[in-house]
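## Example pair
The file below holds two records. Each record gives the amino-acid sequence first, followed by its structure token line.
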Amino acid sequence: MTMDQINPYRTELGREARAGLRDIAPAAIAAIPIGLLFGAVAAGKGMTTAEVTLMSTLVFAGGAQFAAIETWIHPAPILTLAFATFLINVRHVLMGASLSPKMKLSRTQELLAYFFLTDESWALAERRALDRPVTGAYWAAMAGMLFANWVVSTTLGAVLGSFLGDPARLGADFAFTALFIGLIAGFGRSRVTLVTVGTSAAVAALVHHFIGAPWHVACGAIAGIAAAYLAAPKEARA
């Protein structure tokens, strides 16, 4: 092949990567004020910039990191933090099981890819899977972009510290909520979708009101899965 010929494999990889970056861009932008807020709060709790960066790199879970920082004392209650993190992130097991048959990756590649699994990347991958398989190039660009964005924004928040102020004053704390409303709307308005979303939201809200965090996350996820199974046609359950 001459140098001026187009390599279809590389062209496809580039197209998939660009699609991943395009799809994740709104989520990455929405994550910036949240990351800045986390970094500032963590710095206020006594964490160094290096510790904030390391935590974001190794944990990479906004909800779990906020839950941990809310109960952060010296010495840190390791067992309590670990249990709260488990409850918040156990939904990732279900999300990974849902994505697995739709990913064009080897088992080893899947295990590595799921380290970067987030609610946003899962929702976008599920939406893309409605039309085509989720390729490694698409996932790497999408999940990698969100990962880098989170690490950088939380680190910058730790550096800025008290100079940042509270993003809630500008309504920035609503960014992820608005993003998820848009993601859910992208799944359509089928009966199964409406029943699943409605049940999950109702159970999570009730558990949060009567019991509190972080139990509402796991309960909402389990209720949504049960509702989706019961609402699905009989032939789809086999």
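Second record, same layout:
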Amino acid sequence: MAALEVDDDAGRTVALTAPAERVVALAPHIVELLYAVGAGERVVGALEGSDFPRAARDIPRVGSYRGIALEAIMAREPDLVVTWRSGTPRSVVTRLEALGVPVYASEPRRLTDVAGDLRDLGRLTGHAEAGARAAEAFEARLAAARQRLPETPRVFYQLGRHPLTTLGDDHIVTRAIRHCGGEPLFADRRVLVPEIGREALIEARPDVILAAAPDDDWQQAWQDDTLLPAVREGHLYTLDPDAISRPGPRLIQGVEQVCRALKRATPPS
């Protein structure tokens, strides 16, 4: 009989007879979630790029974004594998399930989903109280960051430059922009990563342009596009790539960066 049961982000019930002691995490944000609930010492396998906190760099690797080795996962003798629902190949998940390995799918799409994953992974690893505390701290900062601005800035989030792409309505970054009082442009597109033409962007008249990057160099490419209000007014802002792009506990830092940027770009009432 299962001692622990939670529903993962795919809506499936994950049941364990005892807290997991050997966990393989198949995305960097999952590693961060596990460390945040105090279960870092139980992570016995991870993907390349799992670099936070610093101790995570020493975890044995079982693959990368280019491919995941099922044999390497099984060699770690996991009693729980935490997958990234949209990033882990379905073939890997199917084989793990066929081998009887419990699988939890993580896929935060709403901001509050991060807190849900913290609670679930805390329970599954025997750190329920720490998971609850981490979730509550995340939710408190999220509530404190929410803002309503005197004017609603039109915000373009630049994902790629060539071609020019952004994020659709179902992405957590789009929800962060709304949480901070902005209107995410092109959120009505039916794909998660829409490609945007220059004419469409000019017509949309963004007040703010955001991008995740290690420095501000990306802003230079926009300087001749003075038809865009964001460029004319100097409202181009750089976000920490790991904070805004990984749906883990540091996402709140990315949300706070977005909120500060939109507040700076909005004239006081």
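Notes on the second record: The two ends are 60 Å apart (CA to CA). The mean pLDDT is 95.
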